[in-house]
Amino acid sequence: MTSLSSALSKDKYPGGHNSDLIDVFPSVIRSFLKEHSASRMPFFRHLAKLPFSVASDPTLLGQIHLIYQAAMHATRTAVYYLPHLDSPALRKRKLQILIDDDGLPGGDTHHYQLTRAFLNIGAKPVLEDEEFGDPKELSGHLGAETLHFVRLARELYARSLGPWCAVEVLSVDWMRALAEAISVHFPEFINEPYFRECFSQRVEERHADESLAVTQIVLKRRPELVRETLHNAKMMAEALDGVWTHLDRIIRNACRRPKQLSSPKRQKGRCKYRIRDRRRQK
Hints:
CATH class: Mainly Alpha
Shape: globular
Distance between the termini: 38 Å
Radius of gyration: 20 Å
Largest sheet: none
Number of domains: 1
Number of strands: 0
Strand content: under 5%
Order of helices and strands: HHHHHHHHHHHHHHHH
CATH architecture: Up-down Bundle
């Protein structure tokens, strides 16, 4: 199998048309993205291990909602600007992706579903739904890693299909990791429509397959885009890692604020994962 590093290190492929790499494009993308699966990131493990007194704090839940929603909003809006999908057939396939996110029955959207899921567990939102707009408007509320991801999504999605492929392939893993981590504290969270409908209908898996198939069609017509497509997919995956790092920092900071805990007894048992993590480092 052709690895990402070997693909990016070659100047030309057989026949001068990158034909071999295009044929294995889906497997190359899926292979290197395994290194960026969200479930391997400490944030999800640490979130699951929080004591309930910390995990249920409305302010903390509101911060998690803000960062996650901002990142998801960035990718949902960026899909509207995807390049190279100008033929009627490809526009039709792109439209189905948009409908899955923003055209749910009754005028619902994934954005609204996600907010309701967090409100149902007591989150105190930092921003109202309609305040999620241009990245410039969000910049004062986001940390450096998440802001980088938001800005990069808008920039890269508009010129390359690689970032779209990366996000779609990785999405089912991070959605399941988030749902399972929060459900440790709020068991019904994983049954919220935002998660239940995606999992039962395999929406994210379908989007992943579709993004790779559509991109492969484009690359067969424009083989000169192969290297750029893979490089931009890698950039997007690395930026997404930064979002989980940002969220993990929020979790760790919450553990350092004993004033949020209502009793000495609860304070005594807080954030045990920090102790275990230190032991692993010795």
